[in-house]
Structure formats: C-alpha cells, structure tokens
C-alpha cells in the first residue's frame, strides 16, 4: 500500500501533468508547489511507482499463469 505522502505525490503529479508527454510540469516545480525538497518528492514518487508497477506486474503474471494452466 502507498503511504499518504506517496499517494499525495502521485495524485498531484498526475493532476499537474508530470506524466504527460511532453511534461507540463517538472519535478522541481512540482516540489515547490508541494512545499517539499526535490529529493524528497523524487523519493516519494519513485517508491510509489515501484509499488504500483510491482502490483501490476504481479497481477499480470498471475493472470498469465492462470491462462497457461487452462
């Protein structure tokens, strides 16, 4: 599960366009808005991304195993 800081960071990043291409906001600007240091925000986002991606991978892997066993 995401910590409150991780959840808030990801939600704000999505809402403000951090994950768009091209980005509408960079990490430094996002950190200023959130009143965090850039390294702290980067840590929250990276930890959240790892948890989210691990969960997605595990779900896809489990579904793949189920399909192969049929």
Mean of residue pLDDT values = 95
| Total E-strand runs | 0
- SSE series: HHH
Helical region count? Answer: 3
Distance between the termini: 31 Å
Helical fraction equals: over 70%
Structural class: mainly alpha
Content of β-strand = under 5%
Shape: elongated
Largest sheet: none
User: Which consecutive residue ranges, at least 5 long each, have pLDDT under 50?
Assistant: none
Rg calculated over all Cα atoms: 15 Å
Q: Can you describe what's shown?
A:
The chain is mostly helical and 70 residues long. The protein is built from three helices and no strands. The radius of gyration is 15 Å and the shape is elongated. The mean pLDDT is 95.
For the structure shown, list the relevant keywords:
mainly alpha; 3 helices; 70 residues; 73% helix; single chain
Summarize this, please?
Helices cover 73% and strands 0% of the residues.
How would you summarize the topology of this molecule?
Layout: H1 4-15, H2 27-34, H3 38-68
């Amino acid at each position: 599960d995401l910590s409150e800081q991780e959840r808030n960071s990801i939600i704000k990043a999505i809402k403000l366009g951090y994950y768009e291409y091209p980005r509408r906001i960079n990490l430094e600007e996002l950190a200023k808005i959130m009143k965090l240091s850039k390294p702290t925000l980067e840590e929250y986002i990276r930890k959240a991304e790892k948890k989210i991606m691990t969960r997605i991978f595990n779900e896809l892997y489990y579904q793949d195993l189920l399909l192969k066993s049929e």
